[in-house]
Amino acid sequence: MTREAPNRDMVTLQTCTPIPTFQRRLIIRAERVENHPEKPNPMEKAAERRGR
User: Fold this and answer.
1) pTM value > 0.85
2) What does the pLDDT read at residue 31?
3) Is 28 helix (H, G, I), strand (E, B) or coil?
4) Are 26 and 14 contacting, i.e. CB atoms less than 8 angstroms apart?
5) Beta bridge pairs of residue 24
6) Distance CA 33, CA 9 (A)
7) pLDDT at 26
8) How far out from the chain centre does Cα 42 lie?
9) CA–CA gap between residue 43 and residue 38 (Å, rounded)
10) In degrees rounded to 5, what are phi and psi of residue 9?
11) Rounded alpha-carbon distances, angstroms, from residue 13 to 4, 18, 48, 51
12) What is residue 30's three-state secondary structure?
């Protein structure tokens, strides 16, 4: 499946589809990064432009 990533803070999401056979597997891996709440969030800026 997935190998250990030494010295990296990783998260793995694994799911199977379709119900009920579960013949296919989807695996998503990501490395966690530091959160900077003082920096602007580009998604929030886009929502503001759309008037939300």
Assistant:
1) no
2) 92
3) strand
4) yes
5) 17
6) 8
7) 92
8) 16
9) 14
10) -90, 95
11) 14, 16, 31, 33
12) strand
Structure-derived torsion over alpha carbons of residues 37, 41, 44, 49, reported in degrees to the nearest 10: 140
Write the pLDDT tens digit of every residue in 1-52. 567 888 889 989 999 988 888 899 999 999 988 877 777 777 777 777 777 5
User: H helices then E strands: how many in the chain?
Assistant: 1, 2
- Amino acid at residue number 7: N
What pLDDT is stored for residue 29 in this prediction?
92
Pairing of strands 24-31, 10-17: antiparallel
pLDDT of residue 52: 56
Amino acid identity of residue 34, one-letter, is E
What three-state secondary structure class fits 3? coil
Q: What share of the chain is helix, strand, coil (3-state, %, to 5)?
A: 15, 30, 55
